[in-house]
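ok so i was messing around last nite and threw this chain in just to see what happens. nothing serious, just curious
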Amino acid sequence: MLSIIIPTLNEENYLPLLLKSIKKQKFQDYEVIVADANSRDKTRDIAKKFGCQLTKGGGNPAKGRNEGAKIAMGDSLLFLDADIIVPEDFLEKSLGEFKKRKLDVASFCLIPQTDSGFLKFIFNLLYNWLILILQNILPHAAMGILVKREVFDKVGGFNEEIKMAEDHFFARQASKFSKFGIINSTKIYITLRRYEKDGYFSTYFKYFLCEFYMLSGKPAKSDLFKYEFDQYSKKQRNQLK
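result:
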């Protein structure tokens, strides 16, 4: 069985889109766990409507992922951010390639949901191409991580003290004793809401600084990067509908 774990905090606008895309998958041997950090909107009601298991999350995604993993029954864990959509056959293709390449932990290329070809090109250039080139040297894992249960347990889960890029750090810790790779057969569709709110240049520069800092092998545990889990007020979320 595959356990899909989604940390949430006030995701009523995006969670239904993800859960609908999961429901459309041909592969059906899975459970969905929503680890919610006391949302003030309809997130929990939406999760129940879609038949998800609910568990308490925390103040950051790492806490939610770890809490979801505690009740997961699957021998493989798939951690997904709430504001994404997975394409048709995503689960079937991901698991098939994961098994064929004998991977232990994997992540995905990300496709922005935008009509701008320029933004897609820049995102491919500055993220997707880099993570493919560096996958055997410096693993990156964002928005979606597929990992064997025993590897997750050996790493000790996600470090809940990290303020930013805890997913990248997790992948790098796991790659020290297991095989990491970027799945080539499918991708994840993501929103650009953080870039749109904070500005494209300032957001990317923040990611760049964090990446440079992590080259030392140390995770970003300080609040220097000001990276929040729930950065959207209700008004801002409604504007994104």
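not much to say yet. The chain is about 40% helix and 20% strand.
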